[in-house]
Amino acid sequence: MNFLKNTHINKIGWVFIFSVLVTGGLFAASSLITIDNISTIKKTWDSFEESRSEKAAALSALRKEIGYGGMIHQFKNFVLRHDEEHIRIVNAKLGGAASAIARYQALDLNVSEQGAINNIQNMLDAYSRALLLAADLVAQGKAQAEIDAIVRVNDSAAIKGLDTLDKEVSRLSGANKTRSSKSQAVANLRKAMGYGGMIHNFKNMVLRNDPQTKDRAEQAITAALKVINLYSERSSLSDIERLALKNISGVLNAYHSALEKVDNLAREGNSPAVIDRAVKIDDTPALKGFDDLTREISRQNNIEADMVNTALALVVSVIKAADLIMLVIISLLIFTVLWLIRIMITGPIACMTDVMTRLAAGDLELQVPGKEQTNEIGEMARAVEIFRNTAIERKVAEQSLRDREQRLSAILNNVVDGIVTIDINGMIETFNPAAERIFGYKNEDVIGKNVKCLMPEPYHSEHDSYLQNYWDTHEAKIIGIGREVTGLHKDGSTFPIELSISEMDVGGVPMFTGLVRDITERKKVDRAKAEFVSTVSHELRTPLTSIKGSLGLIRSGALGELPDKLHSMMDIAYNNSERLVLLINDILDMEKIEAGKMTFTMRTTDITALLEDAIEANKGYGDEHGATFVFAGGDKNIMILGDKDRLMQALTNLMSNAAKFSPDGEQVKLAISDEGDFIRISVKDNGPGIPEEFRDTIFEKFSQADSSDTRKKGGTGLGLSITRAIVEKHGGTIDFESVAGQGCTFFIDLPKLVERSAIMTPEEGADSLYRVLICEDDPEISTILEQMLGYAGYQTRTATDAAMAKRLLEEEPFDAMTLDLGLPDQSGISLLRELKANPKTADIPIIVISATAMEGKQELNDDTINIIDWVEKPFDAQLLIDQLGDAIKMPSGDRPRILHVEDDQSILEIVKSLVEKNADIIPAMTIAKARMILQHETFDLVILDLTLPDGDGETLLPLLHKADRPATPVIIFSARDASGETEDTINAALVKSQTSNEDLLSIIKSTIKATQNRD
After folding, report:
1. What is the pLDDT confidence band of residue 639, given thresholds at 50, 70 and 90?
2. Are residue 178 and residue 227 in the same domain, yes or no?
């Protein structure tokens, strides 16, 4: 049997398949006969079963009794013709209908069927009463129209009930078949011509002259003729069926022709009785046609039943013979297969299983047998060998991972900064040793507690509202930003910390990580540095003032003439004392800038006059260095908002540098240019230029080019750093252009004071102006704000202190407010907290405009106050106008909110661009993210993709249709079609590739509008 070891199993399989094919050939003929007979049986049985359906038979009998030729037909004829014979017929038909209902009720009914039967029975009872009443009215000699108006019965519930029964019967008999049975066709014909159909509406038209009944009658006739046409298209119709269909069709055509005649007679003012006589149609052929069809179909059903029995007998005989043959052959094949399986499969697999079990237990040194074989077992052995090698590699990788985890744990446990992670509810999940040292708590003391236990008041009480505000708006005001806050130690003491918060996604669930550093010692060092700088500057300035003053007196000759050599030495001493004074001033200015203590007095400033003053002020310095300052021209009468003295300091720094590095006799050119949104001031010299290696650090503190030529020019290396800080405080930028050997040009770009024509005004045609309260104690700044906001179409009131602001807010309505933090009677921060505590002013949008805006933002540290922005002076006028417009005209509470669940970033961007002008759109790229958002928020609309990375989007639908609140509208926008079960829970289903942007936007708007109208 060794030859079998390298024999491929698929070859043996082919032998087995060939044997099976031979076996199959033996009974192929019998199978074909069986299949043919089964097909015949299926077709015949479908028709037979539908015809034999008890519910279908009962429903057909009910329609016959109440429809064409039945109760409704005869009842209407009695009302029209006053023939008492019709009373007997109507009563008989009502009895037949009751019998049909009892027959249907004897079967197993569902709730909808029972309701339908009740509605039909109520209708029959109503017509029974109406018949008695009509008979009395006939006896009283009432006219047909008057009788019809009195005895009129509402048929809608019964007609709906019959439709319900039709659906149930269709479901039981297989409504998905392409063509219904003859019995069903007759039932459909009775429905179209009977109760609620042609005869019902035709008689109503004669009685009531109602155009709607004419339309319904025409529709019913069309439906009936369509049924007849479909019936006629069947093959092998008998002569009886053709004649019956012809007779029924003739009567239908007669009624169709009579409709127009009825309409004309009614327009001429004829009574229903006259019209009825004029259009009276003989129904006998149609009624006989129905009876003939019913009998013929019953006869054919009996024939089909016999055919079924015959076919079944043939199938049974063939199957018995085939079974006997197959039993013998299959027994032989089974024996052969079992033998081959034992030799070729189970034996080697058992060996391989043992190998894999030992490998799984960790015995990776084990060798895998059978790798040399060339059949499938050999392939399996080689696959197990790959598994073994992978396991070895995985073991090495796991050891490496454990090593990395240990290193990471060591880092986290030894890092000097505290690391705290919290969940979406603010509960602490991790707390590293550094955090334990900083806050005094043990890890187990705080895990599972709210992180606000590490915060003093007022942050402790307000933390949860910060977090909720983030989930409500998704606006990250502190995430990703390092800031100084106050921490609470376990012993109750407070201390300054530096906090950075970042958001991360862990398995689809958002979490937050806080990096905490205790900066108590740094604060002490900063205070010590400030005290040192202040002390040193004072102690140096005092003797330097005396030295400089004394040297000045000596140089001036006030104490007598000096020898030439001594005079030269006095000049050197005086110049160096002046350099020391400038150095001390620069150091103090830099310290003020870094501490945020440098004050700026912003006023309207003519930039041309500023440059002219700077040229005049620095003329002597230029003469001293052999350089001439000239105004090279440019736009004039350009205004900016700035601190003239600080800007003069910045220009002086640039001009002194240009003069120092310019060759003797050269000009330093100052120019102004209007660049549209900003003003550019340039200072150009013809010196040696700035070395390439120095350009990246030129604005750093104590930065000087490392060359003897530069060093001998003197300077502290602080001038450009101070200049940049002054320019940035004005909302501007500073940069330079330099070519080696050809000089250098420094340019300052400052925001231009906004002009009336440049301010975007509100929408034309507004009925009233928005009102803005300006809280500012500087009269020039308040005047500028009044003019800017007035030009933009706002009404303004100005409060010069906090008390006046609070009084105006109590007395008058305002849509927004600007606030300076440096008020004379109250801190702007405390005023903000006071406004928040007052329900009347808690929601007013506020823009803080202050020279210390950023410091105020850190001090307040409250995201729940409705502050639109923190703006430092000087400010961008157009940006301020835009921010006020956004805050006032489109408050987020009035805009629809849309949740877009979609994992394709490009689709998210497209939909956002379509709707962001009219609605706030919140994205969620996973089901987990969407579930989390829906737990905290409600939306006016959800746009849902069905194919998402973590599951089927339809699983979110139950969250949007909870019993305790109104259902959220849903638009399916996906490449995949929605399932049929979701039809009742969605508002629209759109296929991405088949929906234009215009159609999508239109459907979004109409859905939101419908929701708003519902609310």
Report:
1. confident
2. yes
